[in-house]
Amino acid sequence: MAPFLWFLIFLFSSATACDRCLHQTKVAYFSKASALSSGACGYGSLALNFNSGHLAAAVSSLYNDGAGCGACFQIRCKNSTLCTSKGTHVILTDLNLNNRTDFVLSSRAFRAMAKVGMDQDILKLGIVDVEYKRVPCDYKNQNLIVRVEESSKKPDYLAIKILYQGGQTEIVAVDVARVGSSNWVYMTRSHGAVWDTSRVPTGALQFRFVVTAGYDGKWIWAQNVLPDDWKTGVTYNSGVQISDIAQEGCSQCDDGKWK
């Protein structure tokens, strides 16, 4: 499996190697956070509890066919009269199809860029110039969570949603096997953060993930995740945390610090 792992790292590293570089763009906002929670990543209403509702839809290069779901970004507007130097911290939960901006934020995240008392002023602008960079997600020692989707049906179909992916990483492959077995079955990314398979092993289940971070990557094993009597709509603790940080690999890149 090692050659396959390194093929995946090579395939995805070009998109993630410059994650910490500063980028210039514009951002707009959704008036309702529910527009983002029902988005392409498949988080549903769960997203409303992420990061106090500071959510974002991002263009396809950042969404990255769903691998970018759950990624965290720091975004700062460049209007020093209205905005703070800290900006806002958002989690990617949807695909942005608006080619005028790299991001569309929840209104809460959009307002968070403003100075005290100026949140309504920034909303009136609608679109603002910003600079952004990807940053590690910090879930305060929260383990990776696997949620069994309602579409799952024993013994023919299993769909899982991956939550609380920490660090600055992307999960690019998922395998599942019966606990104690080395007969791994690959899962397919259904959409966003949801992976599925119609070849469901029997018994309690373990998982392994290929996690990439820039030019680096590795397998992460999660043992005894789903019990033999797993149920749909239930979340299960993977027992592992992801905290890897993307490696730099850009020939021309800012140092990643706010100016």
UniProtKB/TrEMBL annotation:
Keyword Protein biosynthesis: no
GO term, biological process aspect, one: anatomical structure morphogenesis
Cellular component annotations (GO), alphabetically ordered: extracellular region; plant-type cell wall; plasmodesma
Superkingdom of source: Eukaryota
Gene3D superfamilies tied to this protein: Expansin, cellulose-binding-like domain (2.60.40.760), RlpA-like domain (2.40.40.10)
SMART domains xref list: DPBB_1
UniProt domain Expansin-like CBD: residue ranges: 156-238
Subcellular location: Secreted
Alphabetical UniProt keywords: Glycoprotein, Secreted, Signal
Annotated signal peptide: 1-17
Residue ranges annotated for the Expansin-like EG45 domain, each copy included: 38-142
UniProt family annotation: Belongs to the expansin family. Expansin-like A subfamily.
Name of the protein: Pollen_allerg_1 domain-containing protein/DPBB_1 domain-containing protein
Gene source species: Cephalotus follicularis (Albany pitcher plant)
